[in-house]
Amino acid sequence: AQKVTQAQTEISVVEKEDVTLDCVYETRDTTYYLFWYKQPPSGELVFLIRRNSFDEQNEISGRYSWNFQKSTSSFNFTITASQVVDSAVYFCALTYGQNFVFGPGTRLSVLP
Amino acid sequence: DGGITQSPKYLFRKEGQNVTLSCEQNLNHDAMYWYRQDPGQGLRLIYYSQIVNDFQKGDIAEGYSVSREKKESFPLTVTSAQKNPTAFYLCASSQSWGAPYEAFFGQGTRLTVV
Predict the structure, then answer these.
(1) Residue in A closest to B38 by C-alpha
(2) Do B42 and A105 touch (CB under 8 A)?
(3) Distances B87 to B84, B90, B106, B112 between C-alpha atoms, Å
(4) How many CB pairs below 8 A link A and B?
(5) Residue A8: other Cβ atoms inside 10 A
(6) Quick check: A68 and A75 in contact, CB under 8 A?
(7) How far apart are CA B74 and CA B17, in angstroms?
(8) If residue A10 lies in a helix (H) or strand (E), which one and from where to where?
(9) Is B95's pLDDT higher than 90?
(10) Does the beta-carbon distance from A98 to B98 stay under 8 Å?
(11) B50, B57, B105: which to substitute to probe chain A, counting the most A Cβ within 10 Å?
(12) Which candidate in B23, B32, B37, B41 is best for mutational testing of the A interface (most A CBs within 10 A)?
């Protein structure tokens, strides 16, 4: 069955530090999609990235980067030079048939 | 602006009452979803709908009901049969059914039983 594990429940860093959020997934599907979402204190989930199982290229978007490795079933998310505004809960998600399964989330606190 | 609107933001329910959470989208999306979020847990799917007048149970549908009479609207009713309804409820929509399109979320409704 599909499953997403985010082993880091909470992370605290000081502003300008780099931080990596881990995501490990399980699936028997050969074609699947992975996502990262950010949930700020306001509650709304904000889409960050989508990656399909055939594309293992790493992606960089500003201070954000993602490392997808099928060999280890991981889709890790790195924030470079973190800022206070990055404080949020971050969810990794995986397609599950016609739906999505979410990990438990990692709460990131960036301290000034 | 296009998006998903959930109302109310906060809702209080007495024991034995049914309450309805509103979800409206103007993104012209076909698929809509309801998720429940409890502290320290990920999102769990309650119900989803692919098209008007059709919906399917998710992983935790017991004690909940939905309707999809219009493409734009997908209200969720929390019935008295739901034994532990206090939670944060999120509505989402996506361009087409399932992958690969990402889901867009509303700002959520926090339901508390008093």
Answers:
(1) A104
(2) yes
(3) 8, 10, 15, 7
(4) 57
(5) 17
(6) yes
(7) 20
(8) strand A10-14
(9) no
(10) yes
(11) B105
(12) B37
Coil vs helix vs strand at A22? coil
Q: A94 burial class (0-12, 13-18, 19+ CB within 10 angstroms)?
A: buried
Q: Please identify which residue in the block is written with the tokens 């508390």.
A: B112
Q: List chain A residues with CB under 8 Å of B103.
A: 45, 47, 100
What's the pLDDT tens digit per position in A5-14?
999 999 999 9
Q: Are B3 and B103 in contact (CB under 8 A)?
A: no
Q: What DSSP string runs through chain B?
A: ---EEEE-SEEEE-TT--EEEEEEE-S--SEEEEEEE-TTS-EEEEEEESSTT--EE-TT-TTEEE--SBTTB--EEE-TT-S---EEEEEEEESSSSTTSPEEE---EEEEE-
CB hemisphere CA count around B75 (13 angstroms): 13
Residue B104 in tokens: 């867009």
Any idea what DSSP says for residue A37? E
- For the cut 80, the answer to whether the pLDDT of residue B1 exceeds it is no
As a whole number of Å, the end-to-end CA separation of chain B is 35
Average the pLDDT over A38-44 and give the result: 92
Residue type, B59: D
Task: Locate A66 and state its tokens.
Answer: 């993602």
